[in-house]
Amino acid sequence: MSQKIITRFAPSPTGQLHIGSVRTALFNFLYTRKHGGKFILRIEDTDKERSKKEFETDIIEGLSWLGLGYDELYRQSDRGEIYKNYIEKMLSDGSIYQADDKVIRFKNPNKKVKFNDLIRGEIEFDTTELKDFVIAKSADEPLYHLAVVIDDFESGITHVIRGEDHISNTPRQILIQEAIGAARPLYVHLPLILAQDRSKLSKRKHGESVSLNYYRSKGYSAKAIINYLALLGWNPGTEQEIFTLEELIKVFDFSRVHKGGAIFDEKKLAWVARKHFNLAKLREK
Ligand code: GLU
């Protein structure tokens, strides 16, 4: 590929950095570093009620502790003018309109949207059922879908690498891209991380054990967490299980990312951690 790869990790600062988000950040990081691209951290704080500065700090600090460096950082809350310009332009070209309930809705062309996901293959949606969905509360308050599409376009994102829970958001985002004349990025939806009972790993159900801080405070090293998370949904195609970040950058590829959900197993994490611990001790000698 001759085009420079540009990716983003786009967490919402509405809670402590989730272990699944760390895995998303890691796969973005590995792929981007492998191909000499640019990796952006985008803080998605359009939800003013739920977004908190302390969670943003937690995300930034967590990534830094893990050694997942990024090339650029921006916040959606600093980009109001950019969104407003798009909203005004779209209102005047008729692709969005102010509805009777005062919110701004997207004029759905009601069509079939087909996209190719690098992991899941071809996905087709009929957008009719989405109706004329709301994309902004007002010209000053864009909602998630609009902000994501504008930011991805303005940043020249080539690969949208994110959790599988965003597959159902993709058709709306593609419709918005088409309305603003944005190029379509490649989509890479990563398998969910599941708890032992195969339910989605969520804070509501599984409490603090879904956060990076939980594992940090238990004493797991950054090296062990990175190594273990790499194996959640990906395999190297060899017997090797213990990797440094540098080694992962060399061998990582989407062709070995699985479709099925990956079960989080703390026993395996502990095993990986012991291996790294022993390696570190060997090096000290
Ligand atoms: N902000 C979204 C989240 O926290 C991610 C959006 C995206 O990757 O497109 O889940």
Automatic annotation (TrEMBL):
Any one annotated GO CC term: cytosol
One Pfam family here: tRNA-synt_1c
GO biological process, one term: glutamyl-tRNA aminoacylation
This protein's UniProt keywords: Aminoacyl-tRNA synthetase, ATP-binding, Ligase, Nucleotide-binding, Protein biosynthesis
UniProt GO molecular function: ATP binding; glutamate-tRNA ligase activity; zinc ion binding
Domain Glutamyl/glutaminyl-tRNA synthetase class Ib catalytic: 101-271
Annotated CDD domains: GluRS_core
Family from the record: Belongs to the class-I aminoacyl-tRNA synthetase family.
Protein name: Glutamyl/glutaminyl-tRNA synthetase class Ib catalytic domain-containing protein
